[in-house]
Each structure stands twice: as structure tokens, then as C-alpha cells.
Design a protein that fits this description.
The chain is an alpha+beta fold and about 220 residues long. The protein is about 40% helix and about 15% strand. It is globular.
Length: about 220
């Protein structure tokens, strides 16, 4: 498995490229973070396809420094909800600054996290700060945070493209995920994504994004 192989590049016309870029941008502009889920189920095979997208993300030295835990078990989801709410209660009752609470105001977030039990799937992404070789020796990983962040971006995009919804949830602190999911010490929880369908008539915050022009400088 060494050396180089030919890459199959499917050349599109300029028009096709322009169309594909525009259509995809339009489709992604419809993505929203959803905090109110329906209990409608999603087949495991679908989740496996989504994880396959994330798993193909680029990573430092191709180390793929991640583990995905895909949780469907009601019992484990309940454990996660209880542990997350214990932390979030404290966050909203003293641990977060006034400025932080004020900034979250428009999002309507609360310490209660029912979606952790209602959504059919919780995907928890762990970053592997290092790997272990066959003799138990430490093997280095590179650009771990960047790599795992990119994989999560792929995953969020895939979820939206599949016609499902998610939320980038980072309970804080989230070491409880390491113990509930029995991950080894080299794996640190990075992000939790509930995946499923929105509740009927779901509402989302009436917030605007800055335009791409406001965030872009052309040279
Ligand atoms: N982790 C908390 C608070 C929170 C923080 C940020 I920054 C958000 O964008 C949203 C929520 C929670 O999940 O409620």
C-alpha cells in the first residue's frame, strides 16, 4: 500500500461547476441548529453512511485521530442526559458569566436537554490526542483539533444533505462522556451531535448570519 496511484478526477464544465457550487451553497444556507427533536427513528445504515463521510475527511498525516460513538441505546442516552444536565444546571446558575448568558439570550438555550433522550441517535466525536502502537507505545497524531473539527464539519454537512437535522452540542465540561462511553485515556470528548428529525412545527431563533462579504477580503 505504498507509492502513488492515479486519481480519478471528473472534470466538469465551467457552467456545471458554477451550478454545482450555487446549488450546494443554497442547500447549505437552509441548515439550522435544531434543539427540539422528534422521536422518529433513523436506520443505523444511514448513520453509518454519514460517519463514512466524516471518516473520509482529511487529517494530519492521514492519522484520522477520531473515534465516533453512535448511541441509539435509550439507557445510555438517559445517562448522558442526566450527566449533561447536572453540568449545564451549574453553568446556567453561576458558572457562565453575565456576558455569556446575555449572548446566549437570542438562542433560548436552557440547562434542560431533553433532546439528549428524544433524538434517535447521539453521535459523540472523540479526538485522539495520540494513538497506541501494538507494544502500547505512544504514536503521535498531528493537528488533532483541526482534523477532528474538519471531520465534524463534514459530518454536519452530510447530516443536512441527507435530510436530517442536528445540533452542535458541547456540554461543558464533558469528561463524563469519557466514562459513560468507556473511552481510553487518549480519547477526549470533542463534540456531541444529536441526529434525527425536527419536532413538528419546530421553531428556530430569528437570528441572522453576517453575509459572506462581511467576512471575506478579496486580494
Ligand atoms: N453548553 C451550554 C451553553 C451554550 C454555549 C454556547 I457558546 C452555545 O452556542 C450554546 C449553548 C448549552 O449547551 O446550553
Amino acid at each position: 500500500m505504498e507509492g502513488f496511484i492515479r486519481y480519478t478526477f471528473n472534470q466538469k464544465s465551467e457552467d456545471e461547476i458554477e451550478n454545482a457550487a450555487k446549488t450546494f451553497a443554497n442547500s447549505m444556507s437552509n441548515r439550522r441548529s435544531i434543539r427540539d427533536f422528534s422521536s422518529q427513528d433513523v436506520p443505523q445504515e444511514t448513520i453509518a453512511h454519514l460517519l463514512n463521510v466524516a471518516n473520509n475527511a482529511p487529517s494530519g498525516a492521514n492519522k484520522q485521530p477520531w473515534t465516533f460513538c453512535a448511541v441509539h441505546s435509550s439507557d445510555i442516552k438517559r445517562q448522558i442526559r442526566i450527566a449533561a444536565e447536572l453540568e449545564e444546571y451549574q453553568n446556567y446558575h453561576g458558572r457562565m458569566s453575565e456576558e455569556w448568558l446575555h449572548d446566549l439570550g437570542p438562542l433560548g438555550t436552557k440547562w434542560q436537554k431533553p433532546y439528549l433522550e428524544i433524538a434517535p441517535w447521539l453521535i459523540i466525536i472523540f479526538k485522539k490526542v495520540n494513538d497506541f502502537g501494538s507494544e502500547g507505545e505512544k504514536n503521535k497524531n498531528y493537528y488533532v483539533t483541526e482534523s477532528v473539527g474538519i471531520a465534524c464539519g463534514f459530518l454536519i454537512t452530510a447530516i443536512h444533505q441527507a435530510g436530517l437535522v442536528t445540533l452542535t452540542h458541547t456540554p461543558s465540561p464533558m469528561n463524563f462522556l469519557q466514562s459513560i462511553l468507556q473511552r481510553p485515556i487518549n480519547e477526549k470528548p470533542f463534540l456531541l451531535l444529536p441526529v434525527g428529525f425536527p419536532a413538528d412545527g419546530v421553531l428556530v431563533p430569528n437570528i441572522q448570519k453576517k453575509t459572506v462579504d462581511q467576512n471575506t477580503i478579496w486580494f
